[in-house]
């Protein structure tokens, strides 16, 4: 993210030239660019407006490439869990666009005529996507698009009532590509998704959400036009431009939608129930589902928490590895009671585990240590965890790392440090939490009890 002046903006002529280069010597086809653009728009929408709260999406498509971007975006939004509808007044027989229509019809995505649209779009739609005109458009919109532009303007002017969110693709329809909303009477989108690079008019955009999409700009174009664009994160197809809007933290809330979690459905053994949920987290493709918050407290009673990685679970408990001179290790030496918390956001689930902690055997620690990548083994030796790094900070760590890397360059066995090894939390309480509507969450607690000298687990529902 950065300020408006941090990034490059294209004039109309430059935007046309870039498209010509992409679809000429650089080998892109129009359908490739349209697919990438539509995906960028859909992912930008999903970044801000979740389908649980903004499911009903109307995309109004023009006859050109901007309309094609809208058709592709509608398809992706359908697969993202939204309920898109499309208004496409001026259809073309071009096979590319006809194919996009066929794809949407195969998904049973409804098409509405202009006459079918409600007089007040806010009554029927949470989001309205403006995919009518792009940077190559000149002049004033003609029927029926002049009326449709007016409907977008009317949406923004609704005061004192919930209205549809307005998303514009690349250029708010009716704006001048370079000068923006010249007379101040045009569409005022809540989100603008610029494609390839922002156009000059985007400097006049004052809505809360500006994204850049179209992660396909080759170095030749970047160099020719001296483009400065924000970096994309990971595998994302969009990136926010500028700072996100100021948000009232107290208003942030999620209305969870989950299947019921009932007592008669759970495993009798909480370890088996944990494995079941952990397998669900793995199957859902969640990032680091083995990440857990470990909370400890020393003899002074002051708690501390940090994220560590689960490295083993069996009938005897939960295992992780660390430096025995770290803060958590010092606190565990004074107070062996600790708790773990797993949080799986996309599944609306948490698992809390409480118990006492003991070290695993040195042999088991050695076995795990030597299963790690050699770089991680060296890093464990270099890092005197939780201590103050002397001198010039990271440079000291990197220097020590390089020295050890050279020392063990012959691939000889790297000895496990004596001050490094594993801990096991032996559980004496579990709580499984699943988010539900209206804060009526499911909370099932497992507590141990003895029956005929056998340790069993009692399951009780806690008030949310």
UniProtKB/TrEMBL annotation:
Pathway(s) this gene product operates in, as recorded in its UniProt entry: Cofactor metabolism; pyridoxal 5'-phosphate salvage; pyridoxal 5'-phosphate from pyridoxine 5'-phosphate: step 1/1; Cofactor metabolism; pyridoxal 5'-phosphate salvage; pyridoxal 5'-phosphate from pyridoxamine 5'-phosphate: step 1/1
UniProt cross-references to Pfam families, sorted A to Z: PNP_phzG_C, PNPOx_N, YjeF_N
Highest taxon of the lineage: Eukaryota
Record text on cofactor binding: Binds 1 potassium ion per subunit.
Keywords, comma-separated and alphabetical: Flavoprotein, FMN, Isomerase, Metal-binding, NAD, Nucleotide-binding, Oxidoreductase, Potassium, Pyridoxine biosynthesis
Entry keyword Oxidoreductase: yes
Enzyme Commission (EC) number: 5.1.99.6
Keyword NAD: yes
GO biological process: pyridoxine biosynthetic process
GO MF entries: FMN binding; metal ion binding; NAD(P)HX epimerase activity; pyridoxamine phosphate oxidase activity
Catalytic activity: (6R)-NADHX = (6S)-NADHX; (6R)-NADPHX = (6S)-NADPHX
Binding site for K(+): 66, 130, 173
Subunit comment: Homodimer.
Protein name per UniProt: NAD(P)H-hydrate epimerase
Native source species: Lupinus albus (White lupine)
